[in-house]
Amino acid sequence: MQFGGGISTQAALNAGSTSVTVAESNPMTLRAFRDPVLKDVTGDILAEPRLKVIDYDGRLFLANTGERYDVIDLSLADSVGLSNPGGFAISEKYAYTHEAMLSYMHALADGGVLSVTLWNKEEPPKSVLKLYSTIAEAARTFDPQRAADDIFAVSSYLSTTTVLFKRGGFSAAEIKTLRDYTKSMSWEEVYYPGMPYDGSTAQKILDDYRASIFGSGQDATLTQPAADATAPADPTAPNAACDPTALADPTLDACADTGGDAGPDVLPATALQRMTWHALLTGGWAKLASDYVFDVRPLRNDQPYFAAYVKVADLPLTLDRLDLFQDDWGYLLIWATLGIACITAASLVVLPVIFGWRIVFSHSRGKLGTILYFACLGLGYIMVEVGLISRFTVALANPTVSASVLISSMLVFSGLGSLFAARIFDRARTLLPVVLLAICVLLLAYGVTLSPVLDWIGAYPYAVRLLLCFLLVSPPAFLMGMPMATAMTWLARLGKEHLFVWAWGINGCFSVIGSAAVPIVATSFGLSAVLQWAAIAYLVAIPAFFTVLLPSKAPAIRLVTA
């Protein structure tokens, strides 16, 4: 999964693999490795006869291939710099979603192993817990009876974490081999089948992590909670081995390991990861996720984000301790952008009314309904456009291409819809409400059916995918081109030309608000919710349209006699 710099591919070849398939969706990467200069440095790895190169997204390939693999490896698909949300505050990661993990598991041969490695550079842990919950949920879906036997997970503090899933489960001998190797590499065991677990300090660790973030302004410091003085260094070590007379230390305790030698206490991050796996596979995950300081819900195609860790209810608490949320500044800035957009839009609407425009505006009946109508059109249109750009990345595997296809399709078919609207101007009172209702129904249907449709499209060659995605947008886009043109025409027919500026201005203001709101709605409720909100906007526009059709209120004529 992703060729990248070729390290995983070279490791597989060096290990003696008879056949290696690598999927790389970035053609520039493959072109660079085929460059004559780089060939001398890399040993021309792409020319290796045992290597088969798939030049598109591995997630799409595995979801639609009939081949079965002994090992599927997804290792550090993002650089450590881009793994934090500073550069990409809201970035879709469809390779890590629940649906993607299920595709990988189905592509395994009997006894095959899926290996997923992710950066583990956060304290308190955030992205790794999202990964764990996603893989565990997929494992329970794939093998509901034996999911707990299929997982082996290790981590290295502030480095990486690796989760192994074996189709058919790990044997006792394999578990011993993996544990011995983990110990030799000085990694920390996070989960293995049959791992003992003591949850007596679980709630304390959760409370301590929350206190370390949202304690008093003076006490809140982004440091790990103090270790429990009675926690065993290893879950297999008995508590009776602890020496209660030993001197207290914030990072060490006197708990002996199974060999009787004093050893370091379990790091709170490791203890948290262990309790996470226990809750995920044996029950109690909902409560743990609710009590944890950050949002660590699983990734799905509807919410494919390693982002938005700060819970919405906790947003006001972040204002006086922003230094503790440096990794989340991008997400917090999106909220700030939405606030600025709302304040600016309100100013642009209210100030002209206060300073003179109210005189002209007062001569129009249904003025508030007109404002509402064009606000709904601006909000609904932009939410559909931005929301579908994120959604179509599933099939096109590239956000830039997705944006190009979606924007082009929306503009083309909306333009055709505006052109066709001339045919219904005279019957707008009866036909346009039907059009608005049809838009609402289509958007709700897209929210439910779009994910499987895009998975189906992803199986086709790239050129076909581009064409199908371009056409898939056409039904709602065509209809969405009619309401604006129809309403503007009727404003002119009714002598309300002075409202043109208001119509364009209100529409533009709410387009900006909508574009800022989309990532917040998507991360909080899902991409399908974005389309649902847009559908509601078009539904509200139906009664508002009838106020647009009200005739202008002519000023009273005063007769003066000499």
Automatic annotation (TrEMBL):
KW rRNA-binding (keyword) present: no
Keyword Iron-sulfur appears in the UniProt entry: no
Transmembrane segments: 329-356, 368-389, 401-422, 434-454, 460-479, 499-518, 530-550
Protein name: Spermidine synthase
InterPro entries tied to this protein: MFS_trans_sf, SAM-dependent_MTases_sf
Organism: Mesorhizobium sangaii
Keywords: Membrane, Transmembrane, Transmembrane helix
